[in-house]
Amino acid sequence: MHLIFSISNQLLKASRPRHWTKNLLVFAAPLFSFQLELLIWLKSLQSLVCFCLLSSAIYIFNDIIDAHSDRLHPIKKYRPIAAKLLSPQIASIFSFILIIISLYLGYYVSNSLLLILLIYLSIQISYCLKLKDEPLFDLICIASGFLLRAIAGGVSSDLIISPWFLLSIGLLALFLALEKRKAEMRNININYSTTRKVLKRYSLPLLLRFESLVATSSFVTYSLWAAGPALQGAKTSWMLLTVPFVLIGIFQYQLLSDPDEANRRNNGTSVRTAENPEEILLKDKGIRLTIIIWLISTIFIGLITT
Fold first, then answer.
1. Class for the domain spanning 7-160
2. pTM to 2 decimals?
3. Domain assignments of the chain as residue spans, ordered by start
């Protein structure tokens, strides 16, 4: 019994439940379409479950492949497979089971959702096996995961999503990916030449130029979406009131990604850096407050305009 409990605990850790916050993007489509129908939200909830299972399967698959290099990383070496607390064979079986359950549930919801899940699975497996070592492709793969989550929330409920909104999601996801790579390159305490090969192909000035372009584009596309129906955007131009919160959020994230600011806040001991965006989302008060105010504003606008 103790062995079963231990294996279950390690499988849960390997599944990285903290990362499930990313899957909340499936609710973006019904939220910003101002939908109040319970059935639509239930289908989005089913999409959330599918992505939680599938993303966890991918995390485990990636950890099996990267076990050797993870052991050279001061943080990743504590992951169950890298730390040899979880057998790769058991992890492989569990990952396969999660994939099957996720795809079955996706098929149960709709064929469109199943297709999105299969596309996500194909891209992420390609990323784990090869594309994570290819410059630009690694960033695109990371961003595509967020974009497909947002699309899944729409297709599962047959909602029409504005192309401006999808473009905003994709660009913001690309922004997060760039911030992650920047944080990895700036961390002088880790020999990333052995743990993240693609960093050999990047330079900090190059990533800063990418960041400037993507951050600006993200803000512009969100503003165009918020302008309302005239630009095939949001259902109401009152969404322009939320634009300042998006700008503040981008500024806050860039502030947190600054190495000097990160050291001042974390005293060099926390993992709450741009290298771990889920930690920032869960723990940073400023980011949380901005997101909460943004969501409250959006919900309020939806209630007064529907």
1. mainly alpha
2. 0.89
3. 7-160, 162-306
